[in-house]
Amino acid sequence: MSLVNKKTSRKRRHARVRSEIRGTSERPRISVHRSNKGVRVQLIDDDKGITIASASYIGGKKGTPSEQAKRAGLDLAKEAKKKGVEKVVFDRGGFVYHGQVKMVAEGAREGGLEF
Questions:
Q1: 3-state secondary structure of 60
Q2: pTM exceeds cut of 0.85
Q3: Alpha-carbon distance 17 to 57, whole Å?
Q4: DSSP codes joined into one string, 90-110
């Protein structure tokens, strides 16, 4: 009998998503990672294997976790605009597109990124 826990299931979902999504120089990938303590967001060019920009919040800041996630999306969009990036692809990281993950996407859209 095999034991499949939440972490293993999420990694499987993420692998499925990543088989379809790839970030390029023209359209980098927004990668979201959510933990119990906060959200980390990166803008990644998979062709070159580099992180173009990143933003995060990890507890201790003002506001609800959803508000902080939205702020992280806005911060990432601001950094991306400085680097000349306007179009991106969104990688939810195997997480459900709901709550904090959704707020990161909304913040990035408000910041001017186009999915």
A1: coil
A2: yes
A3: 24
A4: EE-TTS-SSTHHHHHHHHHHH
